[in-house]
Amino acid sequence: MAGLAGRLARRWCSGLLRSPLQVPALGLHMGGPAMRTSQKDFNNAVNQVKLLKEDPGNEVKLKLYALYKQATEGPCNVPKPGVLDFINKTKWDAWNALGSLSKEAARQNYVDLVSRLSASSESPSPEAPAADRKQPESDTLVVTSEDGITTIRLNRPTKKNALTNQMYHDIMAALQAASKDESVITVLTGSGDYYCSGNDLTNFASVPPGGLEEMARRGAVLLRDFVNCFIDFPKPLVAVVNGPAVGISVTVLGLFDVVYATDRATFHTPFSHLGQSPEGCSSYTFPKIMGSSKAAEMLIFGKKLTAQEACAQGLVTEVFPDGTFQKEVWARLKAYSKLPPNTMRISKQIIRNRERETLHTVNAEECRVLRERWQSDECMNAIASFLSRKAKL
Ligand SMILES: CCCCCCCCCC/C=C\CC(=O)SCCNC(=O)CCNC(=O)[C@H](O)C(C)(C)COP(=O)(O)OP(=O)(O)OC[C@H]1O[C@@H](n2cnc3c(N)ncnc32)[C@H](O)[C@@H]1OP(=O)(O)O
């Protein structure tokens, strides 16, 4: 009986992706203050599902189905199929399991899931040896792999490694590839005197045909996908902070496993100065790491921390003298890369997995708020000031 049920369920699921009526999120927002997804975002996600390059598997397809039903019809309101009606009973169970989840939260979860599926279906094939990996299109990101360590290097030193739209996409692709290559540790670092000056503020300079609203919508989707890659990264992730760090390059540090910094580094999140609000899950990770009042001083008032201060507050693991920084850090990482890879992965999972869904919810909420902020006069004026060379941090 179980075999027949399994075969029927597989046959049913294989047709799922063809119809929008049967399609959505692995992690559920349970109706709290999740990011508000428009009907258009939802419709786009429904269409995107049909374009997935890889079959996401029956379990995911069932979740998509259940979320679609919840998003369009609300809580399950049809009679339970009989025990022998395996297929419809499986579908009914999945929909019914969503309980009283609101239509809006279901829509959001659907869009989030599809976005994660799309990102992973675009990643290179598993087990591709790191040395054979195609480099990103531009040279603003350099990915290398040696001694069991994949290094992702921001390489735009003349602009203090500010992150362009292309770089966000390249970093996501590099993380996806590193999660599947043969390396055991992944490192993010920068070229030149800065680690990263945060979001390239000229990303806001070219407004698309849909206007400011469309720009903010696209920015929120990009930011959410970008941060999700850090939340879900399965191997030990280390930041080698070679100089000052600003904005999003600081906030995502709460999602790294280890952060090594030169004593020249500083850590600055000037969101209020820019009319913006915290991202990278920092509204959750920073209070947890350093306590709410220290987090508030950074995230609300934009206090810049020295490397030593950031270390004292738990954001940085260890600080090294600038003169010996590279030598000491890489020697240590090479030694760590000899440890058993599976054990390290499993230890990371057990440390991080409990919070993964919470982090996805926080990320969605931060992006929702930022999407509104980016359309505010306070934010537009701050960016215009920088672009017209009137203001720096
Ligand atoms: C679809 C649209 C949205 C897309 C966005 C999606 C995702 C975004 C999510 C994140 C959102 C926000 C988080 C943040 O990161 S907020 C922080 C943003 N960063 C800043 O405000 C830093 C601005 N830069 C400065 O204040 C200074 O440059 C500096 C970093 C303090 C360094 O000062 P310096 O005197 O040592 O060097 P300077 O001459 O100023 O810099 C050299 C050149 O580099 C350019 N540059 C530096 N940082 C940036 C930047 N962040 N954006 C753009 N350009 C930057 C600087 O303009 C100089 O260029 P040039 O030589 O004059 O041409």
Automatic annotation (TrEMBL):
Top-level taxon in the UniProt lineage: Eukaryota
Pfam families referenced in this protein's UniProt entry, alphabetically: ACBP, ECH_1
Annotated localization: Mitochondrion; Peroxisome matrix
A GO term from the CC aspect: peroxisomal matrix
Catalytic activity reported: (3E)-tetradecenoyl-CoA = (2E)-tetradecenoyl-CoA; (3E)-octenoyl-CoA = (2E)-octenoyl-CoA; (3Z)-octenoyl-CoA = (2E)-octenoyl-CoA; a (3E)-enoyl-CoA = a 4-saturated (2E)-enoyl-CoA
Pathway participation: Lipid metabolism; fatty acid beta-oxidation
PROSITE patterns according to UniProt: ACB_1, ACB_2
SUPFAM superfamilies: Acyl-CoA binding protein, ClpP/crotonase
Region of interest (Disordered), ranges: 118-139
Entry keywords, A to Z: Acetylation, Isomerase, Mitochondrion, Peroxisome, Phosphoprotein, Transit peptide
Protein name according to UniProt: Enoyl-CoA delta isomerase 2
Species lineage: Eukaryota, Metazoa, Chordata, Craniata, Vertebrata
Gene designation per UniProt: ECI2
